[in-house]
Amino acid sequence: MNTSLTKKLALYIFSGFAVVLTSFFIAVQMPGDALDNLLLRQEKVSVSSSDYEIKKMGMAHRMGIDKPLFYFRLSSLAETGYEIYFATENKKDNYSNLLRKYGNSKEVYLFARKCQYADEVLDALNKKYNLSAIDKFSGNLQFIQNNSAATNMDSVWTMIEKDHSLTDFRPLTLILKQSWEKLSQQPHSYRAYIPAIAFSADNRFNDWFFGGPLSQGLIHFDLGTSFFTGEKITSLLKNKIAWSLGFSLTAIFIAFIIGIPLAAWIVNKKNKNLDKFIRLFAATGYAMPVYLAGVILLFLFSNPDLLNIFPSSGVKPIGLNDNVSIAGKLWASIPYLILPLICYTFSLLAFVVSTTGDLLRGQMLLPYIVTARAKGLDDKTIVYHHALKNVLPPLISLLANIFPAIIGGSVIIETLFSIPGMGNEIVRACLSRNFPLLSAIILISGFATIVMYALVDIAVYRLDPRIKSSAA
Amino acid sequence: MLLLSGFLILMSCHTKEEKKYDVASVSDSLNYIHLPEVNYFDKSWKTDNTLMYQVLQEPDNLHPTNGQTLMRLEIMQYTQGRLISTDYKTNKLTAELAEKLPVFNASDSTYSFELRKEPKWDNGDALSTDDIIFTLKVYKCVLTQNDFFKPYLDNFNDIILIPEHPLEFKLKVNKPYIQDVAVWGDISILQRKFHDPENLLGQFSISDVADKNFSGKQNQKVVDWFKNFNAGDTGFDLKKLNGIGPYLPTEWEHGQYLVLEKKKNHWTDNSSLESEKSYPQKIIFKVSADPNVNLLEFKKQNFDASTTLSVKTLAALQQDSMFNRNYYSKFTGTFNYSFAAFNMKPDGEKHKPLFNDINVRKALAMLVPYQQINDVIYKGQGIRQAGPVCSYKYNYNEKLKPTEYNFEKAVELLHSAGWTDSNNDGILDKTIQQKTVDFKFDLHIYAGITDWQDLALLYSSALKKAGIIMNIVPLDVPTFIEKARSHDFDMLMSVWTTSVAPEDFTQLWHSSSWTDNGDNYSGFGNTVSDALIDSIRYTIDDDKRNEMDKRFQRMVADEQPYIFLFNSLRRVAVHKRFGHVDMYFEKPGLLLNTLKLRNAANYVSTTP
Q1: For residue A56, what is the nearest residue in chain B, using CA coordinates?
Q2: Can you tell me the distance from the alpha carbon of A42 to that of A28, in angstroms, rounded to the nearest whole number?
Q3: Most buried of A169, A464, B384, B591, CB within 10 angstroms?
Q4: Interface predicted TM-score of the whole assembly (ipTM), two decimals
């Protein structure tokens, strides 16, 4: 293998790592909380908020979400050394405020942990006794945690100590008060202004890549478990990848098999009207939104009031027996696949015809074509045996750009025709913040694109002798 | 282009009926609408006893404890059994696997249950208290990954058996709570011998398994058992989906359809209860989310029933005489309602205190163009919501009246609250914290729901006439909820789903639910309302509690933390080849097992 391809290979490997990192960070950094999604029921039934927080923290711990994101992060000296997970953004912000104000990370951490412990104690007591005193104390505790101003805290302490109904909570109060005094009387606020790098070997990326509570790690080809359904992502995506890739590759194949000869024929014919018609078709096909095309096809060919030829949705008839052969299944599925395949293909076909036609016309003006004509070769031979060969490498290069576009466009087609592909899953994963599934899909799409680029490079390398010789 | 032109010509040639959408009054009955059978059976109608049911999405899984979507619950209604369920005709709780509704014993803080003798598992074993104990252990165990559901079981302590009455047991609770009985409607009873043949959990008590420091965590067999139980395929592998219900899942093509088949010789076959009779041989839940596709599928009679058609789709279908000939269809009420919530306690910096004055809130409620919204979005069938409880519910305060549109009164209220157009720019303004603030705010809505965007646009136009500028900000669900709970909004629009179960107002209206960043988005609440909510929670006596409920509803309505908009409509269609059609207001809206295929031979076949 020559240097050029070796360099490309190195680039692909580097791209692969970039895809791995990108897929992880895009998935985890989306706004919104995946755990809130999981914990929210669709029915309204009473759950106390502190209970919700405690359950959320337990779940976060079980799933490894309470860990830092990556091996290191840039922060201040005040914020390094201790990691703590909060169930709400509000508490996270207040913790950060305390750290910035007082700087002594250990004391702030201990205070926050004691507050969390107090939450759990109160929650358990509340379930047993339902005393308004517990609610009052719990409310005060929340107030303390939600407000970092020292003056507020002093008045809260005074209130707790003076209120006789809260006598039973004095020991708990004392613990918190002592922790608070240590925190506030030993401030090192300057630490908030000294940058530092916090390092943590036990982090979410490490779990995701090397193995953690929910998976054996990407390094063992385990994509993890779907947050939402509990299913292994590998088995969840197996069939979906097949459908999405199947449609995408079939569409590309049809577009190229039909588009290239069609474009060559048009150029050969040299018919201006035909040329105009094809350009118009290409422009329409390219401009028409996929959804609109799908709906038009459905209303034309799946409508009992017009032509009722094809089914409206699905990929196969219901109840198709498992005992039927693959060929039999494919034959039964064909009517279901026609309309979605047309949707996948038509704009791609328009693009290929248009681009091939333009490239061919460009070729026909080059000196070697003039020479070929001078030698006495007919137009058909010139177009099909000479010009077309030179147009293939740039056309094949286009494949690399087309492929990710098709995957993206498949979302609409899959939703419209109820195709169980990856497009549908991407939307659901985004909406539900299903981070393992989302990162898996981005990863697979990214790697598929890299593989496509690699195959295209190899194909172009083989097709174009100029690349071989210049590399040599 | 030619194709498109041809299409447009063809479409314009197709004649449409001028008939208005045939929607019956949604108040035929308080709780359900019964549709009598038609006296014909069309030749084009299928005669197979398979019911094809359209759904928008498939369930997350069919795991007995660890799933959470409504679709899962709906399907498990046919495959599983529960101690308690809902009588959809009376909207009251009723016994299902239990002999009757449990009785609360104040002396020992227990509920007494008795199991029915008839229920049998698929292997012929009778339902027993062993199964009930096992079920509660699994649901409460710290190793089961059903964190979202555990809070609802925290009140349950133990199950006490009565040796002389093997089908009876007592459920011990910490203290009586209004939803103690209702929650059993969401608990699928598990067969101990199927799931835990070695009785690994038998050595632990209910409180043991619920303990944070559950000793079973040190027992490898127990850990492995739960690992297996929690594994994804427990909710997907059809061989593992065991239940005492009349149907069994036999085929599941993910993203496509799920097939339930009627079990042979099921114990409910001889039941005298109509609600327990299961007529369809197969029920197929077919996923079809696109409204255009649904329109075509119903025209082709490919679906037999649906409760999730869009308003526009059903309204369009009802214009078609052939559809009306083939299907029953109604817009029915539900126990869900839409609302717009004010942020009554903003931080004052990122969000100005626009809505802390009750006159302003009332004014904004009076500026909603309710009639226009009803006509455009709900096709005239919308039912107004007056307070936090749906008008169909037994505890609804009938004296509450929904706010009506009143432009003049609204302007008067705004002026009295200090909002005037001092600089004549067409926008109201006021001095707040020594700054002149224009009356402009953001309305958060869920992205992707066209009806709500339309509603928001109509409201925005109406507000503009009064000098108020509202920007519509669509957000996806997780972001919307995060902002709502952290009070990072001015106003938001959403919907609450409720049910026939007794109301516990804590989650939405207790002040602690605001301070803890819960679902009390608006900041409603004070010591009086909190005390009333706390009393309601633990008042078991229905009559006493209903009175308190009504008082609470008045409190909320008077304070106006929300603009209560509309009761959500369910759009139901059922093919007329089925009889016994009752459309219920409580979800899911239809009981598919009770739809009975009519005998074509009994009718003179007709063609359209």
Answers
A1: B147
A2: 24
A3: A169
A4: 0.81
